[in-house]
Design a protein that fits this description.
alpha/beta; Maf protein; 30% helix; globular
């Protein structure tokens, strides 16, 4: 089954491709099909993910999968949330993962409450008008470190500490991260939803 991925984030593509492999799903980045970025005007992950999935499906004629994910910091009232990718720009930095991490550590300087959660919301649609989109949510709670640790992953992975491992996402092997990350949990749910609703006659591989 071919699905257009409503994202041009290479990190997301690699993770989702690996995790959706059991279903024989082929993910095609929307950019390869000439699709631009959808507008994301909403304040919740699920609304933005649904908008992106419908947009990609409408422009390709294919079923679409969209992921909207972000960091929710307790001391900031859950922000940056859906603005995670652009977090650094509000403080005068250019958009980049490294600048996002730098800006976050600056804003948390002197704050003892380092609790945060990484949240991933996956939405899949069969068509732009699909009245029953598949929705899966994964959430992982942890703490923000005081300096980056590890060289793996992307985004805020170098500063997101998982207490159960005593390591950041960036310090974990990819297969361990995928099994325990917010996106990994959301994708596991999505796999089951696809098996149940989209591929009911297909046995598990």
């Amino acid at each position: 089954m071919k699905l257009v991925l409503a994202s041009n984030n290479r990190g997301k593509l690699a993770e989702l491709q690996a995790m959706l492999a059991p279903l024989g799903v082929e993910l095609i980045p929307q950019a390869e099909l000439g699709v631009g970025e959808a507008e994301e005007p909403f304040h919740t992950f699920v609304e933005n993910a649904l908008a992106k999935a419908r947009f990609a499906s409408a422009h390709t004629g294919l079923p679409a999968l969209a992921d909207d994910a972000g960091l929710c910091v307790e001391a900031f009232g859950g922000l940056p949330g859906v603005q995670t990718a652009h977090y650094a720009t509000q403080f005068g930095y250019e958009k980049s993962d490294a600048n996002n991490v730098h800006a976050l550590l600056e804003q948390l300087a002197g704050i003892e409450n380092r609790r945060a959660a990484m949240v991933s919301t996956l939405v899949a649609v069969r068509s732009p008008q699909d009245p029953e989109p598949l929705i899966a949510v994964g959430r992982v709670s942890g703490e923000i470190t005081r300096e980056p640790r590890g060289a793996g992953g992307f985004g805020f992975d170098p500063v997101m500490l998982l207490p159960a491992f005593g390591k950041t996402f960036a310090e974990l092997p990819a297969e361990v991260k995928n099994a325990h990350s917010h996106r990994g949990r959301a994708t596991a749910q999505m796999l089951e939803l696809m098996r149940e609703h989209w591929l009911p006659d297909r046995s598990e591989t």
